[in-house]
């Protein structure tokens, strides 16, 4: 799989960028603040329809467009070549009518809406996700080990969504159902509404939740083995890495997650815990509270591993994700390495470079024109990113 063409218009620091890319390694260098991370995150957005960082969609629109255009919008386009053929992808992020508090001179980004097109036809976000599969390595990946469970759930959602269209739709459905169920629980806590109304939302939450739970359990079972192999290649110590799914379910439901009838068991669980949910005015069990346990020598890596060990674990996780994507689809994903090689020692850097030559296409950002050196990346194409312009060197 490869990104053959990328077009960005009014996207953050890019007023207009149009570039063709071939297979192989592409090194993009430039000073800090030149937009290297913006570039890779734009590619990732075309892959996942989700921003790599939290924030409002309006942040994607350049301030120049906000100041000068009556209908400011950011446009992202890609042409993708894969084993199944050529696909064009387009995302438009359009600012809504500006309120007084969101005037162009304000430092706050405007609210915005997004529109998606696949091969020129208007589609939903779920129809775009996975047409361009990517794996993004960044310095923030250490948060997958030491951070809050939400970061690990996001990792699961982004990874599985690129591989399973049904997962995307179930995830969207579960989010809407959960919001409705929690709203009803709040009313019931205030002694308004009818508890019988929960029956419908319990059924809906269980149906969508079962899809999420099964997919997460299956992915992590395989990723555990793949990431463990990568960790052995990366680590200088003999510590054993294990990755386990930690579903937010009562203990008696944690077995047989991939067996038939899970949705019925989830309905029974929601009914059994209903009184407590009403008391707390929230749904206390379900995939929205899941976690991933990462253990090093049987101990929680987030609490006991050193910073260097956590970085190695996160890197092993990403390399396992690359292998899993290739294994599931028969087509390697596009690698996005956001200034991570400079932070690695020679051993780990060599392993990541080797992974770069195991896929069809990789993009590497760096602040230094000569690092990584040409000897480390033979045949790599190099580009200077300066003031929103990308120039081949």
Q: How would you portray this structure in words?
A:
This protein has helices spanning 36-48, 63-68, 125-128, 143-146, 149-161, 165-189, 198-234, 262-272, 274-280, 301-304, 307-329, 346-356; strands at 2-11, 14-20, 24-29, 73-82, 85-95, 112-118, 121-123, 134-138, 241-246, 291-296, 299-300, 334-338, 361-366, 381-386, 389-392. A hairpin with a 2-residue loop joins β10 (291-296) and β11. It is an alpha/beta fold and 393 residues long. The relative contact order is 0.16. α6 crosses α7 (198-234) and α6 crosses α9. The radius of gyration is 22 Å and the shape is globular. It has two domains: 1-133 and 331-393, P-loop containing nucleotide triphosphate hydrolases (Rossmann fold), CATH 3.40.50.300; 147-329, Glutathione S-transferase Yfyf (Class Pi), Chain A, domain 2. The chain contains twelve helices and 15 strands. The strands form three sheets. It has a six-stranded antiparallel sheet. It has a six-stranded mixed sheet with strand order 8-12-13-3-14-15, with helices on both faces.
Main sheet: strand order: 2-1-4-5-6-7
Summed over residues and divided by their number, the pLDDT gives a mean of 91
Shape descriptor reads: globular
Helix content: 40-55%
Q: N- to C-terminal separation? A: 24 Å
**Under CATH, the topology of the largest domain is which?**
Rossmann fold
Beta-strand proportion: 15-25%
Low-confidence stretches: none
Largest sheet features: 6 strands, antiparallel
| Overall CATH class of the largest domain | Alpha Beta
What is the fourth-level CATH superfamily of the largest domain?
A: P-loop containing nucleotide triphosphate hydrolases
Helix-strand topology string: EEEHHEEEEHEHHHHEHHEEHHEHEEE
> What class, by secondary structure content?
alpha/beta
Number of alpha- plus pi-helical segments: 12
What number of domains? 2
Radius of gyration equals: 22 Å
């Amino acid at each position: 799989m490869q990104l053959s063409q990328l077009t960005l218009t009014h996207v953050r620091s890019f007023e207009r960028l149009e570039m063709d890319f071939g297979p192989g390694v592409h090194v993009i260098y430039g000073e800090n603040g030149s937009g290297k991370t913006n570039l890779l995150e734009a590619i990732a957005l075309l892959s996942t329809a989700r921003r790599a960082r939290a924030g409002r969609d309006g942040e994607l629109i350049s301030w120049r467009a906000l100041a000068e255009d009556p209908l400011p919008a950011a446009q992202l386009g890609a042409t993708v070549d894969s084993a199944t053929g050529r696909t064009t992808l387009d995302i438009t992020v359009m600012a809504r009518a500006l309120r007084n508090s969101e005037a162009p001179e304000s430092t706050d980004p405007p609210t915005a809406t997004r529109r998606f097109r696949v091969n020129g036809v208007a589609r939903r976000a779920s129809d775009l996700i996975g047409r361009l599969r990517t794996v993004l390595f960044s310095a923030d990946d250490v948060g997958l080990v030491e951070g809050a469970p939400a970061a690990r759930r996001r990792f699961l959602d982004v990874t599985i969504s690129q591989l399973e269209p049904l997962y995307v739709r179930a995830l969207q459905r579960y989010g809407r159902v959960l919001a409705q169920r929690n709203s009803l629980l709040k009313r019931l806590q205030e002694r308004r509404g009818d508890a019988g109304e929960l029956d419908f939302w319990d059924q809906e939450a269980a149906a969508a939740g079962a899809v999420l739970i099964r997919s997460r359990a299956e992915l992590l079972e395989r990723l555990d083995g793949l990431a463990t192999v990568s960790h052995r290649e990366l680590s200088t110590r003999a510590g054993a890495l294990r990755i386990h799914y930690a579903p937010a379910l009562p203990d008696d439901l944690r077995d047989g997650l991939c067996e038939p009838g899970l949705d019925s068991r989830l309905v029974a669980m929601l009914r059994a815990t209903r009184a407590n949910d009403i008391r707390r005015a929230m749904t206390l069990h379900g995939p929205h509270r899941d976690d991933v346990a990462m253990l090093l020598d049987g101990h929680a890596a987030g609490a006991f591993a050193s910073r260097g060990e956590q970085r190695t674990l996160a890197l092993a996780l990403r390399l396992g994700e690359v292998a899993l994507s290739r294994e599931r689809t028969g087509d390697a994903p596009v690698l996005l390495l956001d200034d991570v090689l400079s932070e690695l020692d020679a051993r780990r850097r060599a392993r990541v470079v080797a992974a770069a030559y195991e896929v069809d296409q990789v993009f590497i950002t760096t602040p230094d024109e000569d690092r990584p050196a040409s000897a480390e990346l033979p045949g790599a194409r190099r580009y200077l990113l300066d003031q929103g312009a990308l120039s081949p060197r």
